[in-house]
Fold this protein.
Amino acid sequence: MLTRRRLLEGSVAGLLASASGGCNDRGSGRRVVVVGAGLSGLNAALILERWGFEVDVVEAKTRVGGRLWTLDHLPGSPEGGGNVMGAQYGRVFHMAHHLDIALRTPPRTLPSDYFIGDQRITRASWASAAANPLPEAWRSIPPQRLMGKLNDTNPLLTTRAWHDPDLMASDQSADVGLKALGFPKAAIELIDANNSYGNNLQDTSLMALYRIMGEFGRLSGPALAVKEAALGNMRLPEAMAEQLTRPVSLGNPVVSIQHSSSRVQVALASGETLEADAAILALPLPAVRTIEVNLPASQTALLNQINYHKVVQLHCIVEAPFWEASGWSGSWWTDSPLGRIFTRPIPNTPRYNMTVWINGDDCDHLHALDEATCTETITQALWQLVPEARDVTSAGQLVRWSMDPYAGGAWALWRPGQAGTAHGAIRAPTGRLFFAGEHTAEAYRGMEGAMESGERASLEIMRVLA
């Protein structure tokens, strides 16, 4: 990764040095506005500043980080957004080391037992339990591992070309595709009960699932290699923002953008207007939709068609390991609307962070509730599921990314066949307006996808303005 990065920088240096008034001279006068202070926007801004551009970063929220959000006000500082840095996150690791962000192996999440219907099943007895609905050949596979069977037929184990039009021509909905691949009905139902990569299997691209499972399949020992920032993942974007020459303008949403083949005007809610040679929209698509911007009709139509994953999290604090007296492991996978329950120890204390994590369309009824009612609804369901938790567990923070107008969900989703037609178009520059964000990344997802996309958008600007 470092070798590739140096090669890229050397190539760009040659391009800029050969251009009249090369932008690698400080104070070149070229100005760029970056909209969004998540990892993608901050990475783009840092790269552009490194090559002499004047950069203004504007952010609608009152904090940097985007969908990284460390809940510092809770014991253990759990993550409300991006949880871990995957073993393949080379750009993320490089930036963390460059900025002296201490990393650690995350405290190990306690193993999961299961609730199927109203039946409790220990992880040790899963394969033989009467409530295990899987056929004989599949009974030993725990529910959270069922989707991994896709790697038996995965065309993306040796390539990252997941949105290749030729591959997408054979794409189909995940429920139909899994059935065609021989997944039994019970396995498909369990996958759909807790699908982290789609709101329901009918609207989920099978090729998108192949992409995700292919990433996991290409790694060696990923559970041992993942990291997190020791003091919270928010420390990374905060440190990146501190490196900028100009401070990020926080709490200042963009209301409209006008752009031509040579200039950009960015109007802010504060009444200020920023003029620049180019702008980067480093935002989730639901946030882009809140801005009045003159885009081609075809691109606007595609931007409006991309869905985002629905996630509701309730972060709780556990004072004592209530599960031990009952012989349980401490975390649970359920086929109920409560989703999954992840529990991990808070280092150097007897307490635990517990996160109730609900995915997809099961979030819809919760999104219709106010925050207090939603929190109470989830806690009551938790007490019903594990009554032993009531006296030693307290609710700390409700997180609903779909309710955030500047996020609109946890991450971008792709309908069957959609990525083959939409992925390239939604990230294509128009005039002096460029696009970044994890949904535009070529090879990676998550934090690394965000960093990758900021790098690409900054290089696109340099090619145009040089």
